[in-house]
Amino acid sequence: MPLLVTDYSWTQTDSTVFISVPLKGRKVEKVDIMSTEEYLKVHYPPYLFEAFLFEPVDDDRSTAKVGNGVAVISLSKRTNKVWEHLMITTNDKEKKKEIRERALLTYQEKLSSESRSKVEKQHAEKKYALEIMMKLEKEERDSIQKMKDNEREKNTAELAAWQLRQKQKAEEEAQLRLQSQRDNQNKRAMTEKKWTEGSVGGTVELDQRGNSEGKSKRKQANLPAPRVTGNIQVTFTPRVFPTALRESRVPEEEDWLKKQAEARRAVNADDRELKDLKEEERNPDWLKDKGDKYFATGDYLSAVNAYSLAIRLNRKIPALYSNRAACHLKLKNLHKAIEDSSQALDLLTPPVVANAAARARAHVRRGSAFCQLQLYAEGLQDYQAALKISPHNEVLQADTQRIKDIIQGTDHETQ
């Protein structure tokens, strides 16, 4: 039994009560203080100070300081008036027991709420960080894509302009050749007409006509040959990204391609691994029985592997998560045990008579993991939930009472 502290002192104002409790040489880290609106406990084994307060106080505005061998508790009154006594004057043990249990439940609910708030805050921070990172990655991808689109549009416009210039040049050359041919034909026709209508002698006409034809042939011989038309073949360096190599961020693109290849290899490896299984090894029930046999022989690692493979095949069987949580408890993987037990409880919905035993086992396994992590308030909640499902289980009753004793500081091992 703890030793009750009687050599405390207290003073008060209209709004605050000050209580000084001597610590009798105990270290600060070994002092446990619990306060609610109607109950105060200062526990430093083997000593215990508890006060059943005369009037209710505001626990949220109350404070406690430990140091120099004394614990000073400042309790903020709910109503501004002077108390006649620090504690209630009744000696009714049942009433005090009721106040103590009510205070313990209130304190446990407060701890649980703080724990949930902390987890929700951490989850919100992680979610916010992930959203920011995804937003930055999207902006970077959009920027790279915009650069690529601009470069592609620029190249397309330059190619279209070059093709237009080539077409216009070809048309101009064709018109020049056609005009040249028409001029030559007109000159020949005019020459022939002059000689046929002229009055000069035949010899002179023939000589002049011969000289004219020779000059015409020499002039045609001096004309350049027509240009040969054709197509210009343009080739580009093969690349995964459409951006020109000189415009690209090569290290970033190569890193992205490497990550994509690793992700595809991981998926392909996982698919090949499942394809390589025998027909019976693709049956979750067969794997569960195999895991149960491993657990019975004490081979917990093999049991975890069997349950994990079964979960990969079917993630909707709560017994797989609950049994794997039992293996993690044996292997002292306490956080994994909590995670698997919680997953099993999520799948065991709605709560009906058919799954009552499975829900009780999951609560006990998660509660045991919490207690081994010294999170006794959370562990007590799971054991109480299991006890509601199986209220006549004597082992559960004993374990639940032992956790309550540890929280209250009356367990013999903590003294």
TrEMBL record:
Gene3D superfamilies named among the record's database cross-references: 2.60.40.790, Tetratricopeptide repeat domain
CDD domains: p23_DYX1C1_like
Ranges where the CS domain occurs: 3-87
Placement of TPR repeats on the sequence: 360-393
GO CC list: dynein axonemal particle; extracellular region; neuron projection; nucleus
Record's keyword annotation contains Cytoplasm: yes
Region (Disordered): 173-226
Keyword Repeat: yes
InterPro entries for this protein: CS_dom, CS_DYX1C1, Dynein_assembly_factor_4, HSP20-like_chaperone, TPR-like_helical_dom_sf, TPR_rpt
Location in the cell: Cell projection, Neuron projection; Dynein axonemal particle; Nucleus
Record's keyword terms, sorted: Cell projection, Cytoplasm, Neurogenesis, Nucleus, Repeat, TPR repeat
UniProt-recorded Gene Ontology molecular function terms: nuclear estrogen receptor binding
Biased composition (Basic and acidic residues): 184-196, 206-215
GO biological process: determination of left/right symmetry; epithelial cilium movement involved in extracellular fluid movement; heart development; inner dynein arm assembly; nervous system development; outer dynein arm assembly
Pfam families from the UniProt entry: CS
Protein name: Dynein axonemal assembly factor 4
Species of origin: Sander lucioperca
Lineage of origin: Eukaryota, Metazoa, Chordata, Craniata, Vertebrata
